[in-house]
Design a protein that fits this description.
alpha/beta; Anaerobic Ribonucleotide-triphosphate Reductase Large Chain; ten-stranded mixed β-sheet; 15% strand
């Protein structure tokens, strides 16, 4: 794609020509004289984003301009997140052209100013090729680039930061300040606290040190207070502690103890759900915690021997612990609350290109960026599905040559950005400019594997993933060596040249021994082998421009921008997805990768159509017509009846890790039934397989996490003969996502709102009452009253008991209402329970209590009976005579022919759609911005509705 001052680079169109200082850029997608904008069809759209819970408009901008090929979701995300300028102001961006021009123009100018291009013509080709790739969703920079580049504000291009803290109060206070400034800018940071003396060591004054766990408390409170970028999501942070730190056990137990506190407070009636009013009283919840283990410790675990904990100041062993017991405590804590994760120190530093400048001691919050303290990394990710080719005969191949050329283009742009970038602290700016760490990666791996007929957990799937990762990193370092020949190696290279070249050889050797499986991965491995040979040769001659080149990030918001089906290294969430339509509305579709996979596996068009129709109805492939059982594994997903096993995720990470400069952002999911021993196995296998970091999540391990929506049979307790058994009620909590009705009402001139939420299939579970423009006493009493009723309902008190007790209760305010079904009420309580009876009790139960709807009263005047006759009981009539929205509780007897027809639950994104189809709940919180359920993106969460993330990317 280029040639440099030292001679033509691989892929140049003009080999043999006279060398010129600067890069020669080759056209890949564009043609001379035609701008990329002129080759697409543009259209105007209106972007109106609402909070589905209350219908309020979160964002609105009409008449924005995008290519007609971009999805509604991608348009909404880019318009609301990345367009700059006040909404409604004349200077507000309104076209994707303006956004791309703002960013690409800045990159081109910086490249010209700093001598990257051989000629103005090469700068123009760079401009057009970069524009084309962004316009056609081939790749995307990370979010800070879109936020900041080309604007008047500081041009921060990095999302990932690593800080440092020393054993002094000044350094600890600097940590609080630096972390706060990073959070304020919408990014995240990580650091290692192991330099801080433990609580078992003495201060110079003679007293005991506080220890790092105590200082974590202050930083956690700060992170919870400072909302990232002014948004409502919490800051993202990572806290690491070495396994030989004397306070490591206290560190491991921090979140476990807090989780026990959450349970106790929840059972006492406090709102401890994610985002609940009372969850802020819980400590250590704003960070991901990881223990940094070394090979010595892991070998001690393997041997069952003791392990020494060392003083921070002297390095002497001050305590010895049973290694296997400590490892067990880590697994137990992770099993109970998903923290701590684990990082493998010796493996990380074995692949460190700059060890003479310091060890790698920490990572960013999502665990993919690992390098020197006080440094940063800017990210970009390629959309792998854009490189899948189908020939005229229907054969598939991965376009390795074009992929490599785009990697060269993107790495060039990423390095240029460091020339003009701003940084949150002086120390971070110095380190980043001296080592120029980059983080190229990819998205849509899961979709690519399925489309090519590979199971995610298969040798073929891992081989293709490994080959692509190896080609990406090899090409990146080859371009880095070419850049070094033009604009010089990174400042720290001279001191670290031997180590850097050693790591390049390690990557090359791993590429050489990797297993080749089939016709898809073998050509990619061949291209990667050639790239690594060039890396060794050019690196020896020119050195390298970048200390780090690649990571696998979560690709949250930018994955939506590129219309990717899967994020980062993740598999498909499920086989069905939620698609927004132009002009409003949505529809459920089977993933486009499914037909491609079936075609690759040899199925005929009519067979493909039948399988797709079956998946649309059932959400899985089990017993799909004509589908051979040996092909089921190709369609395994992250959720569902055939969910990918934990070790399937670990093995995929191990396939990619040897070919990455950094690490992989990924959480290994375990079912709720998983044991502590299984967590131990995952953590131990991660070490054996050469991973750099690992985190697990066991379904429903957190209190604020929604419980499974699948019905569970209660265990039958048989009393022992001649013993008295005490039966106590058990509280049945509602799942995090629960259906509900909000009703506005007026009673005697007093206005209010009632929200009644239900179990998805089991009746009323809670009531919230809000009085408008009333004194604090009445409003407070209504709050307390609704909490008491809600707790009683969850402990099994029948709704009809409350109705019989509270209807006809008389007190002010009372009088006329605005509800046609309840025209008069003797009190607010009287109205509330009449309305609840009409909404949630079956006809027979409320009729016995004398509560009827206006239609039923009219029917009684006309026919002498409140009840519809069997002859005219159609579905519509049945829905009117039964609860308005939901089935009644199980403990109420009803006649079979009068079972209510529940209204269909509405999905607002793919995660909620999967939950409806599979009858279970995803392990994800609700988005604080728009109220929809988020989904996993690496070790972070992503909202498909508005693009918000819970992490730093």
């Amino acid at each position: 794609m280029t040639e440099t001052a030292s001679g033509p680079a691989r892929g140049s169109r003009s080999k043999g020509s006279k060398a010129t200082k600067g890069l020669r850029i080759e056209r890949v997608h564009t043609v001379p004289g035609v701008h990329p904008y002129d080759e697409v069809v543009w259209e105007r759209r209106d972007v109106v984003m609402t909070n589905w819970r209350d219908g309020s408009i979160n964002f609105e901008q009409r008449g924005v301009e995008f290519p007609d090929s971009w999805s509604v979701n991608a348009v909404n995300i880019v318009t609301s997140k990345y367009f700059r300028g006040a909404v409604g102001a004349p200077g507000r961006e309104s076209s994707l052209k303006q956004l791309i021009d703002r960013v690409v123009g800045t990159y081109r100018k910086a490249g010209e100013d700093h001598g990257y291009f051989a000629s103005p013509a090469d700068a123009e080709i760079f401009d057009h090729e970069l524009t084309y790739a962004l316009l056609h969703q081939v790749f995307s920079f990370n979010s800070p680039v879109w936020f900041n580049v080309g604007t008047k504000q500081p041009q921060q291009v990095s999302a990932c930061f690593i800080l440092s803290v020393d054993d002094s109060m000044e350094s600890i206070l600097d940590w609080y300040k630096e972390e706060g400034m990073i959070f304020k800018g919408g990014s995240g940071a990580g650091l290692n606290l192991s330099r801080i003396r433990s609580s078992k060591e003495l201060l110079s004054s003679g007293g005991n040190a506080s220890g790092p766990v105590s200082f974590m408390r202050g930083a956690d409170a700060s992170a919870g207070t400072i909302k990232s970028g002014g948004a409502t999501r919490r800051a993202a942070k990572m806290v690491v502690l070495d396994v030989d730190h004397p306070d490591v056990e206290a560190f491991i137990e921090t979140k476990v103890k807090e989780e026990e506190k959450v349970r106790a407070l929840r059972d006492a009636g406090f709102d401890m759900d994610l985002g609940g009013d009372d969850i802020t009283s819980v400590q250590y919840q704003n960070a991901n915690n990881s223990v940094r283990v070394n090979d010595e410790f892991m070998r001690a675990v393997e041997a069952g021997s003791s392990f020494g904990l060392r003083a921070r100041m002297t390095g002497e062993v001050i305590d010895e612990v049973d290694a296997k017991g400590l490892f067990r405590k880590m697994a137990e804590a992770a099993w109970a609350c998903a923290d701590p994760g684990i990082q493998y120190d010796d493996t990380i530093n074995h692949w460190h290109t700059s060890p003479e400048s310091g060890r790698i001691s920490a990572s960013n919050p999502c665990s993919e960026y690992m390098h020197l303290d006080n440094s940063s990394c800017n990210l970009a990710s390629l959309n792998l599905m854009k490189f899948l080719r189908d020939d005229d005969q229907g054969n598939q191949s991965f376009d390795a040559e074009r992929f490599a050329k785009i990697v060269e283009l993107v790495i060039t742009a990423m390095d240029i950005s460091i020339c003009f970038a701003d940084f949150p602290t002086h120390k971070i700016g110095e380190t980043t400019r001296a080592f120029r760490q980059l983080g190229i990666g990819y998205a849509n791996l899961g979709a690519l594997l399925m489309a090519t007929g590979h199971a995610y957990d298969s040798d073929g799937g891992r081989a293709l993933a490994g080959a692509i990762t190896s080609l990406m990193t090899g090409t990146s370092y080859r371009r880095s060596a070419e850049l070094a020949s033009v604009v010089g190696p990174y400042e720290g290279y001279a001191r670290n040249s031997d180590a850097h070249k050693r790591v390049m050889k390690q990557h090359s050797d791993a590429n050489g021994v990797a297993t080749r499986v089939d016709d898809l991965d073998s050509p990619v491995w061949a291209a990667a082998t050639e790239a690594w040979q060039d890396v060794i040769r050019l690196g020896e001659k020119h050195g390298f421009r970048n200390a780090q080149a690649s990571v696998l990030a979560p690709t949250g918001t930018i994955g939506l921008m590129m219309d990717c089906d899967t994020t980062g290294v993740e598999p498909d969430l499920a086989l069905v997805k939620f698609k927004k339509l132009v002009g409003g509305g949505s529809m459920q579709i089977v993933n486009n990768t499914v037909p491609k996979a079936l075609k690759r596996l040899g199925y005929q068009p009519e067979q493909v159509e039948a399988v797709v129709a079956y998946i649309a109805e059932h959400g899985n492939v089990i017993d799909a017509p004509g589908l051979r059982p040996e092909h089921y594994e190709v369609f395994d997903c992250a959720m569902g009846e055939r969910a990918i096993s934990a070790m399937g995720h670990v093995r995929m990470m191990a396939a990619a890790q040897p070919f990455l400069s950094g690490a992989i952002s990924k959480t290994v999911n375990l079912p709720e039934s998983a044991t502590v021993e299984e967590v131990e196995e995952v953590y131990f296998k991660g070490w054996e397989l050469g991973l750099k970091a690992l985190a697990i999540y066991r379904d429903n391990c957190k209190v604020g996490q929604p419980l499974s929506a699948k019905k569970k049979e209660a265990a039958k307790v048989e009393p022992e003969p001649e013993k008295i058994v005490e039966y106590r009620p058990v509280r049945n909590r509602l799942p995090k996502g629960r259906p509900g009705i909000t009703t506005s009402f007026t009673v005697g001139g007093a206005e209010g709102y009632m929200t009644a939420n239900s179990y998805p299939d089991d009746g009323l579970g809670e009531v919230f009452l809000k009085m408008s423009k009333q004194g604090s006493t009445l409003a407070g009493m209504m709050d307390a009253f609704s909490i008491a009723v809600s707790v009683g309902l969850q402990y099994g008190v029948p709704l009809e008991t409350y109705v019989s007790k509270f209807t006809n209760m008389r007190f002010e305010p009372a009088g006329m209402t605005d509800d046609p079904d309840v025209r008069m009420a003797q009190s607010i309580v009287d109205y509330i329970f009449r309305r609840l009876a009409l909404d949630f009790l079956p006809f027979e139960t409320r009729s016995a209590l004398g509560i009827h709807s206006v239609e039923e009263r009219q029917r009684h005047l006309d026919t002498g009976s409140y009840e519809s006759s069997d002859d005219d009981m159609d579905v519509e009539g049945l829905a009117q005579s039964a609860p308005r929205q939901f089935a009644a509780p199980q403990h109420i007897d009803r006649k079979p022919e009068k079972v209510a027809v529940p209204a269909p639950k509405q999905a607002h994104n793919s995660t909620e759609l999967v939950e409806m189809q599979l009858g279970l709940n995803a392990d994800a919180p609700l988005c604080f911005s728009c109220g929809t359920k988020m989904r996993r993106a690496g070790s972070c969460y992503l909202c498909e509705g508005c693009g918000s993330t819970s992490g730093c990317s």
